[in-house]
TrEMBL record:
It holds the Pfam family Glyco_transf_92. InterPro entries: Glyco_transf_92, GTase_92. Residues 1-18 form the signal peptide. This is Glycosyltransferase family 92 protein. It is found in: Membrane. Belongs to the glycosyltransferase 92 family.
Length: 373
């Protein structure tokens, strides 16, 4: 069919050219319908694929988060809306997309008041920000921040949408509004929340117990962990700590992957989605927590001997640096080294006194954020 259309287009152009050369084209002048017919025939043949395929929107089954992607069979454009948060004066939407794609150009938020009988969408002032990373993956993280136009009596009576612009070859734009499910931010006041990167096939129960028991002693209010997969015994242990209130277990993120995609979005996000999940944790707790730590399971935050707990460390640092937005924590590499390979010669005291090997201190850019700055 594409080959036949090309032949048809060639014949139309040839006929028009021939008519102009012989001045037969002037016969069209009295009839506007003649011009309209030629233009419509040429336009439809040339752009049949565009009209048929442009702007088809589909959304997979709803899970914990809302995933939406836009498919175009000629130029595949994919945009995944992961989550959104209602803050006091703004709406924040986290989504990933290819940084060079046009689909998110001009993206905006809108709100619809359910009390208003007209149910008209009101466009909000929106700002899109690219979160810079290594730049080696196909997809990048974006934060869309929209100022909310809200009154007290309308506080819980609004729907929210993300608007996409779909340009065609003539530059005309079609607006597609996608309703989003917003999350409310955490309201419980806390001093320190630690957001730990997601893990796969988690089986290191020793690391889990050491970290959580240490953070319990150091007055960490909550540890948030995203678990993609874990062995059954470790998962049961995680749920036990969750019931005690020190841990919050979240499911790992997994984007839908269809055959018409050029690549797997789960393999084309920086650091396996860690940056995205760190932003999710930040926006969830930013209005209720003094400090938010972004670390890994094998990073154990410990205060110096002058402090009795972790929150007091950062409160003291805040007195010295009152305008800071975040602290970068120095990292000391350490490991256990057992010289003897014979289990009968193992001695726990010797291991603790002589078996801890330490390296130099360096900055690993592990971050503790002050969200209210």
């Amino acid at each position: 069919m594409p080959f036949l259309r090309k032949i048809l287009i060639f014949l139309i152009i040839s006929l028009i050219d021939s008519a102009i050369r012989r001045r037969h084209f002037l016969n069209c002048y009295p009839s506007f319908r003649c011009y309209l017919f030629l233009f419509s025939l040429f336009y439809c043949c040339l752009n049949k694929d565009i009209w048929q395929n442009n702007g088809k929107f589909s959304s997979p089954k709803q899970q914990k988060s809302t995933f939406n992607h836009l498919n175009n069979q000629k130029i595949r454009e994919h945009l995944f809306i992961y989550t959104s948060f209602l803050l006091k004066e703004s709406l924040v939407v986290l989504f990933i997309s290819h940084k060079n794609h046009w689909i998110h150009n001009g993206i905006f938020c809108s709100q619809q008041n359910l009390i208003n009988k007209t149910k008209q969408n009101i466009k909000l002032i929106s700002k899109k920000e690219l979160i810079s990373s290594l730049g080696i993956c196909a997809m990048d993280l974006y934060v869309l921040t929209c100022n909310r136009n809200i009154k007290k009596q309308e506080k819980n009576n609004n729907k929210y949408f993300v608007g996409l612009n779909e340009p065609n070859w003539l530059g005309w734009r079609k607006h597609t509004n996608i309703e989003i499910t917003t999350q409310k931010t955490d309201k419980q006041q806390r001093s320190l929340v630690l957001c730990i990167s997601r893990v796969f096939a988690f089986e290191r129960w020793q690391l889990l117990i050491t970290a959580l028991e240490m953070y319990r002693l150091l007055n960490v209010n909550l540890v948030v962990a995203h678990i993609q997969s874990a062995i059954t015994s470790v998962y049961n242990l995680l749920k036990l700590y969750e019931r005690e209130g020190i841990l919050s277990v979240r499911p790992g993120i997994r984007f839908p992957h269809s055959k018409n995609m050029q690549w797997d979005p789960n393999a084309e996000t920086e650091f396996n989605g860690q940056i995205l999940l760190a932003h999710e944790c930040f926006y969830e707790f930013r209005e209720s927590t003094e400090f938010i730590g972004l670390i890994d399971w094998d990073d154990l935050l410990l205060p110096s001997k002058n402090f009795v707990d972790l929150p007091s460390v950062f409160k003291e640092a805040l007195i010295k640096y009152p305008n800071t937005a975040y602290f970068l924590v120095n990292k000391l590499e350490a490991k256990f080294e057992e010289k003897s390979q014979n289990p009968r010669l193992f001695n726990l005291r010797n291991l603790m006194e002589e078996g801890i090997m330490m390296s130099h201190i360096y900055n690993d850019e592990k971050m503790v954020v002050r969200p209210k700055n």
